[in-house]
Design brief:
It is a single chain. The strands form 3 sheets. A 7-stranded mixed sheet has the order 3-2-1-4-9-6-10, sandwiched between helices. Strands 5-11 form a two-stranded antiparallel ribbon. The C terminus is likely disordered. The relative contact order is 0.13. It is globular, with a radius of gyration of 27 Å. The protein is an alpha/beta fold.
């Protein structure tokens, strides 16, 4: 069967980023300087710059700046240093992965590879099965592939029989993917579990490159980078113009590129390239033992998952009993009631190795990292060991990103993960997880940053006492050092896409935040693996509104300056830059809503 991605099968993943030592040292020096200058700027903003005649405008903006600076502090800690754990040779038998106290009779390592599926094309799953069957290992190994089908499809079972792999299903869909994984755990006995989605196509080297980390008996899981091999590489602007408007379009494209440099149309329209996240953000959490699991393409130690699940189960039972008996003052009566309740509560409480949650992967990571009785470790392996499919339309992309945001925010507000009563995270781990949750909260202050220049351009009311020399002396050093710092901090990867998406996601993350605060249940939508047809401009109405209002404000402000009705034109200059950045951040998402992949015969040669 021919898929749209068949023509991309020849692609190979990028090598892991290597950051020179001098680059890392430069980053650290610049980052410290930027934070100090930022603290000085924030102090000045609160104490000497507020427009007291418009505190309704000035206070929200300076508060947003303060919260954003706190986010910069957290992000700096996240990116502080790169410290990959040493990659050990693969174990020859199971005792090489156990402590001396846990030693058993020597035997080969047992590995279960789970392919979780629900409604995906069975032929797509077949490709994942066939790639999993190509696994190589330098020693004898008990390696088994299991397709966990929550769709209960006869055709999926038939594919498994044809390919010679195990088919596992169940009568209900309780817990969705997490419940599906639990069902798989109950019917297998491997020492290690490889979790794959329906479209996760593992490379033959996966086990030989990752099982060595488990020589440390405290390593609970290893996450490998996700690589979307089907990302559009774009089409040169001149060739795109030629297809759309002939020689005139080609000429315009050529002229534009002569002025601004090479331009590609349709290159990764949905910001799917995960290198910034895996190769920089998550990888640099290794030093803090805080790299969390991201589901697909991860390898888990069964003992760790089950041990943490049992402790969580006991805690949940005791917490439920405590909740119903804490108001009883008589100790003897309270103890008697608790003992009577315990077997019933234990029976009604689910044992969930993977939390029944839309973000079961990060929740399980917190559970394992916060296990005070056994300090489990995690590893972010730097090398790509599988390939996956990316969202191919705005609707699919929104479904996926909404799940990430809403699931993370639901954990933050409803599970109290920073409580020392249940989770015993170390200080570095706490800061790393705080960085993740803080980034989703940023939609609040990002909205302020998007609206503020519009207010100024239409009203002429400044949020500062004056756009004067003190403003530039405090703001520009902070801004320049921040830009330089993060250029070195993300060396080898363009940071603009990350910044643009961080700003333009504001409306979706606000919706996720609203959903969680209202107590609505986060739905377990399956991310479609095929392109959804249609145009999706209705999904980016807030981004369109920001662009239109900012442009209108710039025009209106320009008219006022031309008429001489603006006392301080420098404020208008600053807001031209500010509004321009906001527009530039919104436009890629708007264009993505209109993007459609080129027909196969229209796809340009990627080597040209």
């Amino acid at each position: 069967m021919d898929f749209y991605f068949s023509r991309f099968e020849h692609r190979r993943p990028p090598e892991p980023l290597t950051t020179p030592r001098w680059v890392m040292m430069t980053w650290q020096v610049l980052a410290v300087a930027a934070l100090i200058l930022g603290a000085n700027y924030i102090y000045w903003r609160w104490t000497a710059s507020l427009n007291t005649d418009a505190l309704w405008y000035a206070i929200p903006l300076v508060l947003a700046e303060t919260l954003a600076w706190i986010g910069t502090v957290l992000f700096t800690i996240n990116l502080w240093k790169e410290q990959d754990p040493p990659q050990s040779p693969p174990p020859g038998e199971i005792n090489e992965c156990l402590s001396p106290e846990e030693a058993v009779e020597p035997r080969p390592v047992k590995v279960d590879l789970f392919i979780a599926t629900y409604s995906e094309d069975t032929e797509l799953v077949r490709l994942s099965i066939r790639d999993a069957l190509k696994m190589t290992y330098p020693f004898p190994i008990d390696y088994r592939i299991h397709v966990l089908d929550d769709g209960r499809r006869p055709e999926m079972k038939a594919v498994c029989e044809e390919e010679g792999v195990n088919y596992i299903t169940r009568q209900t869909n309780i817990g969705f993917k997490a419940g599906n994984l639990r069902n798989g755990l109950e019917q297998t006995d491997g020492d290690f579990i490889v979790i794959c989605d329906a479209d996760t196509r593992v490379f033959p080297t996966l086990l030989s490159h990752t099982l060595g980390y488990f020589r440390d008996p405290d390593v609970a899981w290893v996450q490998t980078p996700q690589w979307f091999f089907d990302l559009p590489e774009g089409e040169n602007l001149s060739r795109w113009g030629q297809r759309k408007a002939g020689k005139v379009g080609y000429g315009l494209g050529w002229l534009i590129q002569k002025c601004v440099g090479p331009v590609s149309i349709g290159r990764d329209p949905f910001f799917n390239d995960p290198r910034m996240f895996y190769d920089v953000i998550l990888r640099r959490r290794n030093w803090a033992n805080a790299a969390f699991c991201c589901g697909a393409a991860s390898i888990h130690r069964r003992e760790a998952v089950m041990q943490a699940a049992l402790r969580s189960y006991v805690w949940s039972v005791e917490e439920e009993i405590h909740r119903h008996t804490r108001d009883i003052r008589d100790e003897e009566t309270r103890d008697a009631l608790q003992n009577a309740m315990r077997p019933h509560v234990a029976f009604d409480t689910e044992l969930t190795p993977y939390k029944f949650h839309v973000s079961e992967d990060i929740y399980t990571s917190v559970l394992l990292h916060g296990d005070a009785a056994r300090r489990w470790r995690s590893v972010m392996h730097p090398r790509v060991e599988s390939k996956m499919l990316s969202p191919q339309d705005m609707l699919t992309w929104m479904i996926q990103r909404f799940k990430y945001a809403a699931g993370s925010l639901d954990i933050l507000f409803h599970d109290n993960i920073f409580s020392r009563r249940r989770f015993r995270l170390s200080l570095p781990q706490t800061l790393m997880y705080a960085t993740t949750f803080w980034s989703y909260m940023a939609c609040v202050w990002n909205t302020v940053f998007l609206i503020s220049p519009i207010i100024y351009l239409f009203t002429g009311i400044p949020p500062v006492s004056a756009w004067s020399t003190p403003f530039y002396l405090h703001f520009l050093p902070f801004f320049i050092f921040s830009e330089l710092a993060f250029m070195f901090g993300t060396w080898g990867i363009s940071a603009w896409d990350g910044r643009a998406s961080y700003l333009s996601f504001f409306s979706m993350n606000l919706r996720a935040l609203n959903t969680v605060l209202r107590g609505e249940q986060i739905k377990f939508h399956v991310t479609p693996k095929e392109r959804q047809t249609g145009r999706f401009l209705y999904l980016v109405k807030p981004q369109i509104a920001i662009v239109v209002l900012t442009l209108a404000g710039l025009i209106w402000g320009g008219i006022q300056v031309a008429r001489g009705q603006v006392d301080d034109p420098s404020g208008y200059v600053i807001n031209i830059f500010w509004g321009g950045v906001n527009i530039a951040a919104m436009l890629p998402l708007i264009f993505a809503a209109m993007w459609t992949p080129a027909e196969e015969d229209e796809v340009p040669n990627e080597d040209t």
